[in-house]
Amino acid sequence: MVLNPYNQGVFKSLLGEPEVEELFSTERMLANFNAFEVALTKGLFQSGHITRESQNHIVTTIGNFEPDLVRLTIDAQKDGMPVPGYVRQLRERLNNTFAKDFHYGTTSQDLIDTSLVMVLIDLTRIYRTALDHILSSLTELEKQFGQRPLQGFTRMQPAKMISVGDRLRAWQEPLSNSRSNLLYIDKNSRLLQLAGPVGNRDEWGDKAPKIAKLVASDLGLKVSKQGWHTDRTLFCTYSDWCSNVVGILAKIGKDLSLMAQMSQIEFTGGGTSSAMPHKANPIEPEILVAFGHYVPQLTACMHQALMHEQERSGSMWTLEWLVFPQICTLTSKSMKIAGDFLNRISSVK
User: Fold this and answer.
1) Dihedral through CA 161, CA 167, CA 170, CA 173, nearest 10?
2) pTM recorded for the entire structure
3) Alpha helices, DSSP H only, in 305-313?
4) How many angstroms separate the CA atoms of 328 and 316, rounded?
5) 5-348 has which fold?
């Protein structure tokens, strides 16, 4: 859900990131909804809330469910979210005897938040792989060119001489620290949202803790003591991590752009100019810098989305949907751009 029109058409290859965009697609969302409802249905049976016959019928129906996407889109516009339409369509396919047992005790936010948490698991895997690639590239550059002298600059003025390795390590260490931090953030992000209509799980009575544990176990998530409908710090913490990484890569992009200007590096495949054929523009470093200016502004919006009023906010929730996918997509794009460009550096002078 990157709502920038320049991220379409001919700009798609430059600014888009299909692998992460797919994680936020309708198809992936619905697959996560299905997984959540299957896990909930099994938990309701195991806790004695529904019969085995009802469990089997619901699980089978979900497995064969093909939603009417046109209708679902129309319903989402009316309801402000896709869950009510999704639930209606599935209940229409269920035997009337069992329809009441489907989605029992839960609410729209449980599906959407848990679906997003499930996305973060795959997203983190993508980030770790990309960071490993960048760190490996920096290590290789240090092996090749680390001992070479390089003019150092402070406040954009010539300072003392440094080595190429000095600059590379200044890039490498914060990325290495970010990778370590990601492991901690990933562990604390795998949190089931299952709290019911007003966030207190009262629909299931004294069996609520057991149901929550069963559903969390089925989905490979952790369970909190209660719901976190209005506690959006999980997504803000993830956004902050993304913004830090994009900023670190933007610093690298600035350094590389200046090194290209001063002919301190040589790279293959530079961008061309329509007016000056001799140019080899450092396109990738420039994009890194652009993202470095843009993503922190999106992160600030995520912090505004912390202000859920009362037990749920429609407006703050909608703000998250506008902002969070863009942050995640641009973070992945930054890492892939950086990794590709670092591999194209052929010499550091």
Assistant:
1) -130
2) 0.91
3) none
4) 18
5) Fumarase C; Chain A, domain 2 (1.20.200)
